Amino acid sequence: MGGGMALLFAEHGITVSLNDPSEENMNQLLATAKKDGLQDRMQKQSSYEDLCKSLGSPKVFVFSLPHGTVGDSVVDGLHTYLAEGDIIIDASNENWQSTQRRQGKLIPQGVYYIGMGVSGGYQAARRGPSMCPGGEEKALDIVMPLLRKVAAKDSQGNSCVGKVGTGGSGHYVKMIHNGIEHGMMSALAEAWQIMNLGLRMTYDEIANEFDRWNEKGELRGTFLVDIGADICRQKDEQGRHVLSIVEDKVVQDVDGTEGTGIWSQLEAVRLHVPAPSLTTAHFIRLASAFRAERKQVKKAFGGQFAVQQWSEAEGKKKDILESLRKAVYAACLASFVEGINIIDQADQENCWNIDYSAVVQIWRNGCIIKANYITDILADIFGKPHADLDLLHNERIVQELKNAFPALKEVVSKGVEHNTIVPSLSATLEFLKYSTSTILPTQFYEAQMDYFGKHMFDLKSEPAGKPVTGKHHFEWKLA
Question: Which member of 44, 59, 174, 326 is catalytic?
Fold first, then answer.
């Protein structure tokens, strides 16, 4: 990512000084720069001192590093050579709390630290990513012209970057972006398996269906649908579909290379925000990582609960595929709703003053969760003053989810009947059911807790109040 961004800056007329612990990495990057005709705009520096001497004032640093202590080491190494007004842009997938800690550390020195989420993968880092910066407004104002120059552009030519808010808001919003991404990816993966194993469609047929989804309707202009078609079509030099040889393991959460998915789930729980479309997607990722364990469990069970063919789909495939499209849309939209609810609660807690219109613009293009129909809706909502950030109160969002509910229910029902694995789709269905219900089974749950723990309860005759301890107890059984 860092190398791609260095080339991107150079391509836009910016002189870039490089520093990396690996001389080989820098030499490879300079070789690429030469091939692209950018060698006059890039130079390597062997030490932090030389790096800082090569820059003007204020010095602007951009780094993309593994999350964790590596960033602290870089900040410590630069510390001696920093001056008041210098700016560090952390373009890593860093934990927002680490970002805020580093911001606090550098304040006495008058150095600005911007936490900037970068999305779109390594290809976008080279050609123009979506960027999500947060920090001191003065520092953001200084770097925004630079960032607008290199950011991805939407269909109107507007840059997909904006001032998100103060503190660690940039990295926080990017973290939740990745949580939304996981919900969307799981829903699409579930749809792919329904088409492949349930409807017995070939990879090329599935690619054509994804093309249809991406061209018009609620999933139009959705990046993950677009690349889904490409993935289904790609063949290797032997003529095999590459997808056919890919193992069903997602290990990035377990091997430590990806932290944002874990953090986004922890934040949902910490802030008491129901986010099942995101959380359930994370759980199947975790289960997938441990393939050897799954093989042992399969052996213990004497086999798996095999996905069955949707035989009744014969003659109705077109209708089922349309229901599947709407079900996937419901899960994607619910993922956005849940993610924005998490961001809202964190914003209230941290007083970041998040600009939701800027967030939507950042998500317009260049990022993994690009979804034109959904961002059009969100832009309209957040373009109005005093928007209600609980999107389940919004008339347009409500109508969209109500329209998709029958299709979602149909797909989940058929999935359960045929042993199809549909965690995010089914979690979205349950989310809509319990979010709209005033007769939850937790009535019995609450009574159980009062029975054994004297946890108290509210009365049905009382007005609905805030989530605080009830005032009533019944002595169900004498001690």
Answer: 174
